[in-house]
Amino acid sequence: MISGLMMASGILSLKGGADASTAPLFYSTLVTALAGLCPVLFIKHSTYITAKERYAITSGSWIAVCLFGMLPFLMYGHGFTLVNALFESVSGFTTTGASILNDIEALPAGLLLWRTVTAWIGGIGIVTLFSLMVPRSHDGKSALSGAEISDLTRSQTMMRGNGFIRSVLTVYISLTSSCFILLLCTGMPWFDALTNAMSTCSTCGFCIRNASIAYYDNAAAELVIILFMVLSGISFVGLYSAIFKKGFRQFMRSHILRTYLIILAAGTLVMSVDLILRGGYPTYLRALRDAMFQMCSITTTTGFATADTTLWPTVSTIVIIGASLICGCAGSTSGGIKVDRIVILWKRFRISVQSLIHPRWIQALWLDGHVVKQARISNAMSFVRIYIML
Q1: 73-103 in b/e burial notation, b at 16+ Cβ within 10 A?
Q2: What is the DSSP string of 135-199?
Q3: What is the reported pLDDT for 137?
Q4: What is the pLDDT of residue 151?
Q5: For 98-121, how does the pLDDT look when each residue is reduced to its tens digit (9 = 90+)?
Q6: 115 in Cβ contact with 107 (< 8 Å)
Q7: How far apart are CA 147 and CA 310, in angstroms?
Q8: Mean pLDDT throughout 343-352?
């Protein structure tokens, strides 16, 4: 799968006039394809995967794709040392969005596309994608995807196996395609529109311009990117039900969705007022535009920029830090703690306080019409503890 995507990037660079990335991409395609074929040809087929094996496969797969994903950068050279190439690959596949590049625009088109492809694949999840290749009768299909997808995401739907994965892929591809078309309509060049759409929906923030989205200074393009950053931070299972299963009303009643949208709206309002009062912005409209974009970008862990937030006043900085911790919803491409866990912990806190006042009173924790099991509450608390510790 990875070698096929490398080849696609190589073909694009070949059609664009065979730039300096063409040979590195095709050589990397060959090496990666051979590495992928070896276990298929020489390792005995197994129909059962243990719990220990599925976690080993999941972790091992992420490490493997990061190692092979760095090959095009390493073979290209031009300042890409072993560490630098690995950093760029890991940053893409984990959708972190950090970069060692000082001049992104100096990279040839093939590598720029490959860099964005790593982010797009990482957004949906490596194991989630290749679990589709496992035969339908194989016991390991749900085991593999289950090792990567959180219990919060799985609890949102009754779909399992291929049905669940295909619904997520349908939403992901639909969002990316729609974002690409709308960015074209704003006047953005097709290559910029393609890479920005992939980076937006993967919530990675890789941009082919040094100044990020600020380079375009295009209000219409910023609105399109804001829309799709927000959508990409919502549970894909919920979006699938709302769009394809006519469950829009139930989707809009979701407590998690409303909390997510309220966080975005409140943060945007606070920052825009702060920018007018202390940030030196001349008009409220411009302050609102930058505040909305940065709030959506940070909350969804995308990381695109239209302004230098390091120069923003203290209140705005505090809002940005808080938003970067909470982030989007479970089942989206967004990273972070997730709104779902914040809601669960807040409800658990309220129940704990009430139990101090009424020791004999027993209350279940309800979320979107369902009782949250104690195991899920414990998992959420453990996740937040480990996240903060790290």
Answers
A1: bbbbeeebeeebbbbbbbbbbbbbbebebee
A2: -TT-THHHHHHHHHS-HHHHTT-S--HHHHHHHHHHHHHHHHHHHHHHHHHTT--HHHHHHHHHH
A3: 47
A4: 55
A5: 999 889 999 999 999 999 999 999
A6: yes
A7: 38
A8: 89
